[in-house]
Specification:
Layout: E1 2-4, H1 7-20, E2 26-34, E3 37-45, E4 48-50, E5 55-57, H2 60-69, E6 73-80, H3 90-102, E7 107-111, E8 119-124, H4 129-135, E9 151-153, E10 161-163, E11 168-171
Parallel strand pairs: 1-10, 3-11, 6-7
Antiparallel strand pairs: 2-3, 2-6, 4-5, 7-8, 8-9
Length: 173
């Protein structure tokens, strides 16, 4: 999967007003498949609500309409952790599970501007992570999961290639 180097910087710039208020911001990573390569070409910020440790999209039909009109596939999502470290919370794991069930290559990017490291690219392991999260029936938003390697840093696997090209930014908020 190819990601533009400027993605994090542009996303954090758009998220900055929320980050200063300790509110998470999320975006959708979209692009195209050409010659067996997934390329993220577009960052879409949908209408959303956020708190200090969650963000949720709203009016998803606007997002789907935009992607359909521009022939964009969904390759994952990106969000901030304004004051937390760079990891996938239990809520993030469940959010990402739906993306990875639809597209096994889907990624989740976490930006933690006040921490080091401040940027991570993650995927659920398969096995065991995808099975564990997809069958989890815990009712509380934040909860524990078995102490197993549920997700991994996708940038360490050679799956991600960060290259220099522009990303189209669409703010639907």
């Amino acid at each position: 999967m190819r990601l533009p180097h400027v993605l994090q910087e542009q996303f954090l710039s758009l998220a900055r007003p929320n980050t200063l208020k300790n509110i998470e911001t999320c975006g959708i990573l979209a692009g195209n498949l050409k010659n067996n390569v997934l390329t993220i070409t577009t960052l879409i910020l949908p209408k959303q609500t956020g708190t200090s440790d969650t963000c949720s999209t709203e009016n998803e039909e606007d997002l789907f309409e935009f992607q359909n009109k521009h022939d964009l596939l969904t390759f994952g999502w990106i969000h901030t952790h304004p004051t937390q470290s760079c990891f996938l919370s239990s809520v993030d794991l469940h959010t990402h599970c739906s993306y990875q069930l639809m597209l096994p290559e889907a990624i989740a990017i976490v930006c933690s501007p006040s921490q080091t490291p401040n940027f991570g690219i993650f995927r659920l392991t398969d096995p065991p992570g995808l099975d564990i999260i997809s069958t989890c029936r815990a009712e509380r938003a934040f909860h524990t999961h078995p102490d197993k390697p549920i997700y991994t840093d996708a940038s360490d696997t050679g799956f991600i290639e960060m290259i220099n090209f522009d990303v189209n930014v669409v703010d639907l908020r």
